[in-house]
């Protein structure tokens, strides 16, 4: 079985590509380190990762961030590890697909930001409404996304998965171990 057929393994670097509903490329992250893959999920880390916007603008992430993607949930989660605590940026998005080029998903505009003190904000509602009409998301997509907002908020409220400090600590520690191992080689 080829590496592409079984997917990336721990320590590999992948590209992440987000698209809009019309198929246009929205944003690309280069060199996300894979921390874990399973049948349904990918956990990785971005740390000073090059990001390219659809208009060609480029920037580099400022702090380490644990990223979580799932094949069944319509969201992905970015846990940004900052000096004042962990902040979360959650994209309402299609479940991911992986091919030999990249991990890919469709970004559906709505975002939930969680601050270190636990405050939650739903962002980009106007953008979601605009794009929903422009690209005809449809009633089924709208229903799925709204149901997944409720799931996401439940995860946040119950500190499930990526919203647990123990989860962030575990995966950040694993990232540091992999970095040390690669530096020792």
From TrEMBL:
It comes from Levilactobacillus tangyuanensis. It holds the Pfam family DUF402. This is DUF402 domain-containing protein. Keywords: Hydrolase, Magnesium, Metal-binding. The keyword Disulfide bond does not apply. NCBIfam families: PRK13662.1 (NF010183). InterPro entries: DUF402 (IPR007295), FomD-like_sf (IPR035930), Ntdp-like (IPR050212), SA1684 (IPR016882). The keyword Metal-binding applies. Residues 22-160 form the DUF402 domain.
């Amino acid at each position: 079985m080829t590496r592409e057929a079984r997917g990336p393994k721990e320590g590999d670097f992948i590209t992440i590509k987000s698209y809009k509903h019309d198929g246009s490329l929205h944003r690309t992250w280069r060199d996300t380190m894979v921390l874990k893959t399973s049948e349904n999920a990918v956990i990785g880390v971005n740390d000073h990762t090059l990001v390219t916007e659809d208009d060609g603008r480029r920037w580099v992430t400022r702090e380490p961030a644990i990223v979580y993607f799932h094949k069944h949930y319509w969201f992905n989660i970015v846990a940004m590890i900052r000096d004042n605590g962990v902040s979360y940026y959650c994209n309402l998005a299609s479940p991911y697909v992986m091919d030999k080029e990249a991990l890919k998903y469709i970004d559906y505009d709505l975002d939930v930001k969680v601050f270190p003190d636990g405050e939650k904000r739903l962002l980009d509602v106007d953008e979601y409404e605009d794009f929903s009409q422009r690209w005809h998301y449809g009633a089924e997509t709208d229903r799925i996304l709204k149901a997944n907002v409720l799931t996401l908020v439940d995860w946040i409220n119950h500190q499930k998965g990526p919203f647990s400090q123990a989860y962030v600590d575990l995966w950040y520690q694993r990232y540091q171990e992999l970095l040390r191992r690669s530096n020792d080689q």
